[in-house]
Design a protein that fits this description.
With about 230 residues, the protein is α/β, with parallel strands linked by helices. The protein has a single domain, classed as Vaccinia Virus protein VP39 (Rossmann fold). It contains nine helices and eight strands. The chain has an eight-stranded mixed β-sheet with strand order 1-4-3-2-5-6-8-7, sandwiched between helices. The longest helix is centred in the middle third of the chain and has 13 residues. It is globular.
Length: about 230
């Protein structure tokens, strides 16, 4: 499907948090970023050059502190992992984990995910997209900021390979209803698995920091796997 200017998102789905960097995180941003980081640009990435090899690409949008992203990269050395995040302290933490685990299959972009998708991710290049515990924007006047919207789904589908998957998790019941509603009207994806659980049945992913926080508040967890429909 050809993208047009009407698909472009101008409303930010995130708040850019700075937070306080630890000395080790600051040092990681200075010393490790040149090895693992990818600068935002308007040029399409060549993943074989970026990772110095050819392997399926797993893209995670908004990886937080990077614990689960680094764990997945360690557990699946046969895949290449690309994480997108705007939280500087989380990026620094993820860089430290990548160093400590000696990960060669992990790269990071520090920029708005929508612009990275639009400018840098090749069409039909991604095997799997992970969107775990995105900001639910619970107030009604902020619902337009939720990242799971029809235009976002089209952008993801265009960059997924045939039979590629979009994997989502949330701990907000109202957002789970929103995700069910938006995806049910999408002609680009089919839901192949949906789980509601109390933290004991994550769907092919590690438990995340935001998940643990939600469970402490008594929240339920929703997990989905959506597969890109063929020929869309």
């Amino acid at each position: 499907m050809q993208e047009t200017s009407k698909n472009r998102r101008t409303i930010r789905s995130f708040v850019r948090r700075t937070g306080r960097l630890t000395p080790s995180q600051s040092k990681a941003l200075e010393e490790l970023w040149p090895k693992i980081g990818i600068e935002h640009d308007t040029q399409i990435l060549d993943f074989e050059v970026v990772f110095s090899r050819s392997a399926p690409i797993v893209l995670e949008i908004g990886f937080g502190n990077g614990d689960s992203l680094a764990q997945m990269a360690e557990e699946r050395p046969d895949k290449n992992f690309l994480g997108i995040e705007v939280y500087e302290a989380g990026i620094g933490h993820c860089l430290l984990m990548a160093r400590d685990l000696a990960l060669n299959n992990l790269r990071i972009v520090a920029h708005d995910a929508i612009e990275v998708l639009e400018h840098q991710i090749p069409l039909a290049s991604i095997a799997r997209v992970n969107l775990y515990f995105p900001d639910p924007w619970p107030k009604k006047r902020h619902h337009k900021r939720r990242i799971v919207q029809p235009a976002f789904l089209d952008m993801i589908a265009n960059r997924l390979k045939d039979e590629g998957t979009l994997n989502i998790a949330t701990d907000w019941a109202a957002y789970a209803e929103h995700i069910d509603e938006v995806l049910s009207h999408s002609d680009r994806f089919i839901c192949t698995e949906r789980r509601e659980h109390g933290g004991e049945l994550p769907l092919e992913r590690p438990r995340t920091k935001f998940e643990r926080r939600g469970l402490k508040k008594g929240h339920r967890i929703w997990d989905w796997r959506f597969e890109k429909k063929p020929n869309t």
